[in-house]
Amino acid sequence: MLTQNLGYPRIGSQRQLKKACEQYWAGNISLKELNATARKIREENWQLQVDAGMALIPCNDFSFYDQVLDMSMLLGAIPSRYAPVLSQNKNNHETDLYFAMARGYQKDGLDIKAMEMTKWFDTNYHYIVPEFTAKQEFRIFSEKLFGEFNAAQQFCGDAAKPVLIGPASYLLLGKEKEVGFERIDLIKKLVPVYVEIINRLKTLGAKWVQLDEPCLVLDLSAKEKEALVYTHQAIANRVSGIKILVATYFGALQDNTPLAVNLPVAALHIDLVRAPEQLDEMLKQLPDRLQLSLGVIDGRNIWKNDYEKSLALINKAVAAIGAERVLIAPSCSLLHVPCDLELETELDYGTKNWLAFARQKLGELKDLAAIFEGDTALLAANKQSIEARRNSTQIHKPAVKERAAALTAQDAERLHTFAIRREVQRERFNLPLFPTTTIGSFPQTDDIRKLRATFKKGELSLNAYEKAIEEATIAAIRWQEDVGLDVLVHGEFERNDMVEYFGERLDGFLFTKNGWVQSYGSRCVKPPVIYGDVSRPRDMTVRWTTFAAAQTERHMKGMLTGPVTILQWSFVRDDQPRETTTNQIALAIRDEVVALEQAGIGIIQIDEPAIREGLPLRKADWPQYLDWAVKAFRISASGVQDDTQIHTHMCYSEFNDIIAHIAAMDADVITIETSRSQMDLLEAFAGFKYPNEIGPGVYDIHSPRIPTTQEMVDLLQKAAQLLPAQNLWVNPDCGLKTRKWPETKAALENMIAAAQTARQLIEVEA
């Protein structure tokens, strides 16, 4: 029985890739130095997998920014607007074109917007959305794949397994940029390029190729199913002498099982962590020629594997089809978990013994193979760890469980409807048409990060630390007053991350020092671990929000992270329903909202960017999730009086299918990402006649590009055609933590000027 891996974290155990990319973007290192860092990370990853005995080791799973963008480069699916990046500056390299597509490009007399970005299925990873036209052509453009495979062979030999996103999934992950065609219709143009790619890999010595087709766990149309069948039949007809493994993950195949098992490929991978129930049906339908890869190690969470549960699945498969046809693997790429638990030197032994990061998950695969061959000592040690966690008194808090169990429908209701609240709030706040604000955070400069790190190391006193944070907060407030923002924020200089900060102040969470995972590009997050029942022992934000409010006569917004986002962006306990954990978090946030109100804060934002992200991949499962997710938000927001204005924020979300549930959240103001989509998302709100107030993001904070005032005016005019102008706010599309101060100030000054111009235009039109 063979072990294999589907993908490995590419950021490096010390976030080397993040640091190198940011230095390259700043012009501080050369392309040669950037590539040297990348090469070292890849080689270390391959060696770890060789040492763990993996029979198949992924290559081309490394990316400087995003694997979907890598595919667009490989396939030559490069929007025409980026052509000048190379043609107008002969010193630019393919890598510069690549980063321009991801981040935008604003130099050499060019001003090119970045490509759209959205969430990778139901994860917190973001990918760059491919753009397609009706006459789209594909060709091999980038040589990265082939160079990395040659390098991988030096470490892994025949175990080196190139990984590509499958043709159908690649098209379905993209977006049509003109009307009159469906992107899946491009499949017959695309497949010949895949055939050419795979044949080149075979010539270079590849024995296996992994084609990721995660779309197989989605609801697919008849045309999309036909495209999948056509794809793999066409490849089988034109490629020989190399084995194709189709990888599915993040859910069950369900009605797509007959399609998947009849694809003319050598092996099929299924996710038995998210969907263990699918194994029985799979074994009934599996043809004799097909090998089956069992995803039994959780590629998306950090809990130690329960070997007894995994072995039950493995033994069932082996009994049905024989060990020679079974591979064992993580459920999906290990991209979504941190690199190495051994770096966590400050975790106590008992807690650390509950966990497994990417490197340890490779070890778990090795253990399972050994246990299958008869190593009972490994199984006994694992059982002891699993039982220790299950029975730990650190996890279970009866008072917390009882409070959550006692929730009623009334706990999720504001005192009056939005129509009544709006009049009270307008009288209290007296804001102009198109009121301006930001989403919350301001740039976290190197000085701020160094200050926080020095304090955490005990090298700076609490008094000195707080004085420095106060000075940064006051400076941000004065600047906001000077440029004329209507609703201010305190800047969040005391916060490390929008989830981690709250987790550190809630019971039931534990934290790592090096548990970084990639969110997008060079943006890495360090998710907290929810290990037990969650409660709020003390105030979390009141001190800093009230300090900021005391520094200004303008309205100051309190900033909180919502319960679903805290759940989604943490590593969540797997021993109780997610709904139960979310309600516990919602009650903790509710207590903080009430405390802010009692301290005199009248505008409170509860960010929920992950509501859409948490949506199940199958529509049949949506109602149950949306019911408890919306209820959790309402529980967190409903303890206040009518004149307290509740805001929420969501980003990179397609709202059309869930707009009624977004409205049911009943936030007084919602801010959303719309800049990269050119306000397209607003059409869902307009069609629904969304009744509450809304702030469509007018510029993209995920790019260093500075938008002009006129382009933001154009976006506001488009928004005013779709929704009542008196309901519109003006804001960036997300927080500004990752940006630099010069670009932030320039962009916000243009944004405020755009709001002022829009006020004049709307008044003239009225």
Automatic annotation (TrEMBL):
NCBIfam families in UniProt: met_syn_B12ind (TIGR01371), PRK05222.1 (NF003556)
Cofactor(s) it depends on: Zn(2+)
Domain Cobalamin-independent methionine synthase MetE C-terminal/archaeal stretches: 434-756
Name of the gene this protein is made from: metE
Task of the protein: Catalyzes the transfer of a methyl group from 5-methyltetrahydrofolate to homocysteine resulting in methionine formation.
This protein's name: 5-methyltetrahydropteroyltriglutamate--homocysteine methyltransferase
UniProt-listed Enzyme Commission number(s): 2.1.1.14
Residue positions binding L-methionine: 439-441, 492, 607
Matches recorded under Gene3D superfamilies: 3.20.20.210
Chain sites annotated for binding Zn(2+): 649, 651, 673, 734
Keywords per UniProt: Amino-acid biosynthesis, Metal-binding, Methionine biosynthesis, Methyltransferase, Repeat, Transferase, Zinc
Cobalamin-independent methionine synthase MetE N-terminal domain sequence ranges: 3-318
Protein source organism: Mucilaginibacter yixingensis
Binding-site list for Zn(2+) 1: 649, 651, 673, 734
Pathway annotation from the record: Amino-acid biosynthesis; L-methionine biosynthesis via de novo pathway; L-methionine from L-homocysteine (MetE route): step 1/1
Binding annotation for L-homocysteine: 439-441, 492, 607
PANTHER family recorded: 5-METHYLTETRAHYDROPTEROYLTRIGLUTAMATE--HOMOCYSTEINE METHYLTRANSFERASE
Reaction(s) catalysed by this chain's protein: 5-methyltetrahydropteroyltri-L-glutamate + L-homocysteine = tetrahydropteroyltri-L-glutamate + L-methionine
